[in-house]
Amino acid sequence: MTLRVFIFAGQSNMVGSDSKVQDIQTFPPFAGLESPQPAVRFSYCLGREDKVTSDGWVDLQPVDEVVGPELSFARKVTRSIKAPIAIIKVAAGGTHLGGDWNPDDPSGFKMYPLTLQWIRDALADLERQGIKYRLEGFMWHQGENDMFNQDYMDNYGRNLKNFLASWRRDLNAPELRFYVGELCTKTIWGMDLRPRMYAISLGQRQVTDSDPLAQYIPTSHVGVEIGGGVGLHYHYGTLGQLEHGENYADAYLRNIGQLRETKRPLTAWPYTKNSTVKLFVLAGHRNMEGERAFVQELAKMADKAKLLEDNPTIAFKYNIGGGYKVADGWEPLGPAGFYDTFGPELSFGFTLQKSGVTNVAISKFTHSGSQIIDWTPEGSEAKSRNLYPAFISFVRESIQELEDKGHKVELSGIFYHLGENDMSWGPFREGAPKRLMSLVTQSRKDLDLPALNWYVSQQPPTNDKDVNHIDVTAAFEAAVAADKHLIHIKAFDLPEQKKQLVIDTRGIVWLGETIANKYIARLIE
Question: Fewest C-beta in 10 Å: which of 23, 180, 300, 414?
Answer without folding.
Answer: 300
